[in-house]
Every structure is written in C-alpha cells, then in structure tokens.
Amino acid sequence: MSTRQLLMFMVDKFMQKTRSVSTGSISGFRGERVKIRNRHQLVLGQGVSLGAGVSIRAMSKSGIVLNDFVTVDDFAILRASGVIRNLGEGIFIGARSSIGAFNFIHGGGGVRIGSDCLLGPYVSIYSENHKASRLDVPIREQGEERSAVAIGNDVWIGAGSTVLAGVSIGQGAIVAAGAVVTSDVAARTIVGGVPAKVIGRR
Question: pLDDT, tens digit, for every residue of 168-185?
Fold first, then answer.
C-alpha cells in the first residue's frame, strides 16, 4: 500500500468516526448515507461499524441489537419488520460478527446471529414467508407465517447464500457460497448446494 493510499484510508476512517460521534455512536464508525429508522429501537454496542449506504429499520417487538464490534458492510439492509400492521420480532447480532456488503436480513420471525460470525457479500436471511394456500384471495392479503432463524457462534456463511425461515445453524458450521439453506445445519458441518446438503465436516 502506498503512502497516499494509506493516508486516504486514514482520512476515510476519520470521517466515519466524525459521523459516528455526531450521531451519538461515540465509539463506532459510520459511513456516508447511512439510513436509520426507529433509532429508539436500535441498540449499538461499543465500536460498531456501519458502512456506506447501510439501511436499518428497527421497528419491531424487540428492536435490533448490534453488539460490541459488529461490522455491517456497505449497502447491507437490516429490516426488523415487513409491515407495521404486524410487527416483526427483531434482529440480534452477537459481538465481533461481520455482516457482508449487500446483505439482506429480515427479522419478521426473529433472527439471532451469534458472536464471531462471518457473512459474505449478498447473503440473505428470511424469517417469514407469505401464506399462499387460498386461491380466492391474493397472496399479498393472506398474511405471513413466521419462524425464527438461529445462527450459532463462529459460523461462516459464504457469498450469495440464502438462509430460509425456521433454520438453525450450529456453532462452527460453514455454508458454502451460493447455498440455499432450507433445513437445520449441525455444528461444525460444511454444507453447500441447492438445497444445501452436508459436503464435509470440520
């Protein structure tokens, strides 16, 4: 890294820190164009870093909790509820976990991510589905079915993966890039594919 590149990096971090202090998150970093709605339901631990363009909507039963030293990379979306008429459960992210760029996490049924987790870019996590059993009523009017997602500590979810409602991923598991996780993943296993299946063990 050249001296100029290092200087630019330091200036960027200084600006992020300045934005963070100006918005009350004294110990963290905040990129440009961060959008936070329902700030009173957002809990930020020490040293939380929010990248450029991050969008957080915290309105829900339990709000959104980002524990100490959580990193949310550029343009990630954390949405605790889909609709106001039926508030979602919320989102909890454990200490030192990293949410990748362009992630989408929907906390309608509740999403709990443990500590020291790594989520690659473009990961999606959904904790609710639309009901669709009736043919005489539009799907959008049939309501939602909610089921919590639980991700243990020290989990790595590869780029472009999707985790669906009701799934539990055990501690130390790895989800390969592009996988679609439709059922529980045991601790320290490696899964991949569509739908995801065990392809190895740690």
Answer: 999 999 999 999 999 999
